[in-house]
From TrEMBL:
The keyword Transport does not apply. This is Proteinase inhibitor I42 chagasin domain-containing protein. Residues 31-121 form the Proteinase inhibitor I42 chagasin domain. GO terms for molecular function: cysteine-type endopeptidase inhibitor activity. It comes from Blepharisma stoltei.
Length: 125
């Protein structure tokens, strides 16, 4: 299982470069005609899950507002894992500018997130 996760993460990074870890930094870079991936810790057994706030998209966009969930290597019940999100540049991307994308950690049946991460996305060449 551990091996599969490592292979999977390697495959992701091979396809599209770095996977940014939002647990460490909320600043990421995207190339003008490219995409990026970013991961963030998540524990769905609590009912909480990360969602991209759709209203913050425009300059960059995604095909999946709730990302892809990857369970952790640990088999402990409730240990959690992480969600991986992909962002794509649209035609509105201008090199040298930045945009921000908000992620909210919330229960689908509740309106208020318990945590918000404001990701600054720098557009590079
Ligand atoms: C992001 O871009 C705005 C202009 O749109 C600029 O004022 C701001 O300083 C930039 N932020 C960072 C962190 O570079």
């Amino acid at each position: 299982m551990k091996f599969m996760i490592i292979v999977f993460l390697f495959a992701i990074s091979f396809i599209s470069g770095e996977v940014y870890n939002l647990d460490e930094s909320s600043e990421v870079s995207i190339s003008k005609e490219g995409s990026l991936q970013m991961s963030i810790s998540s524990n769905p057994t609590t009912g909480y899950y990360w969602y991209i706030d759709e209203s913050t998209l425009g300059v960059v966009t995604t095909d999946n507002l709730d990302g892809d969930y990857i369970s952790s290597q640990s088999h402990l019940l409730g240990a959690g894992g992480s969600q991986i999100f992909t962002l794509y540049c649209t035609d509105l991307c201008v090199e040298g500018e930045n945009t921000s994308v908000k992620l909210e950690y919330m229960r689908s049946w509740e309106k208020e997130p318990i945590e918000i991460v404001d990701v600054t996305v720098y557009i590079v060449s």
